[in-house]
Amino acid sequence: MTYSSILTVVTQGDDALRGLDTAMALAAANDAHLEVLVVGIDRTIQGYAYTEMSATLLEVGLKTARADAEELEAQVAGRLKTTDMRASVTQVITPLSMLTSVIRRHARFADLVVLPKPYGAKAIYEEPAIVEAALFDAQVPVLILPDGMTGWAAPGRTAVGWNESDESLRAVRSAIPMLMAGDTTYVSVIDPPQHGQDRSDPGGLLAQFLARHGVRCEIDVLARSLPTISGVLIRHCSDRDIDMLVMGAYGRARWSEAMFGGATRDMLENCPVPLFMAH
User: Fold this and answer.
1) Angle at CA 143, nearest 5°, toward 142 and 144?
2) How far apart are CA 134 and CA 6, in angstroms?
3) pLDDT in the model for residue 260
4) What is the rounded distance in angstroms from the CA atom of residue 42 to the CA atom of residue 201?
């Protein structure tokens, strides 16, 4: 099992290329083809002004988006020239309303999507939508990079946030190539149920599944000693000196997490290590 096709997305912003070096290093480590999707976004909102004005705004918006994309494509091409890796750059200009469709079309043919953290000082408005489009619309696992990360080394110590959900299991299956290359995977179970078939051995079946792939596992049963699941996982990453966290994305409705908060949103914003997610 390996990742043969890796995609990263570059769009406008003050630090638009902040995830590119890590995506390049990861693709090189897997002998994978790297596709860099450069997206110029036309943020013009149509339909609120008379026709002549709308046409003018549309033309200006398209020109701005195209100019930004061409500049970014030149920067990406310059970095790729310094390596002999297999890579391609695709430029797309799209209105904001079609961004999800653009990401889906390209990401669904990748084994893994690598993206910078979509929240924080360096992020732009559209980046959460790009992450969700890859996870939900393209149904592809996504590796979210923390701020400041520029290289890539196979994670030696990985934690799995395990809650027996379909989302968690899919994330684990998708991460197996990385888990096999690492040293230890910690199956981390927070407040396991006191009743049910797995109450006496929480995480045992997952550990058995991974062991059959040659993954060295340990099971950590964690108490929910902090107000949020994300807080417990973040502290666990620190306690275990974790290099990467694997977890399922959005166990409940996305709109619910957006309105009321949730583990997925919290981890996307605060996870201090690379975050491997699938839905």
Assistant:
1) 110
2) 12
3) 39
4) 53
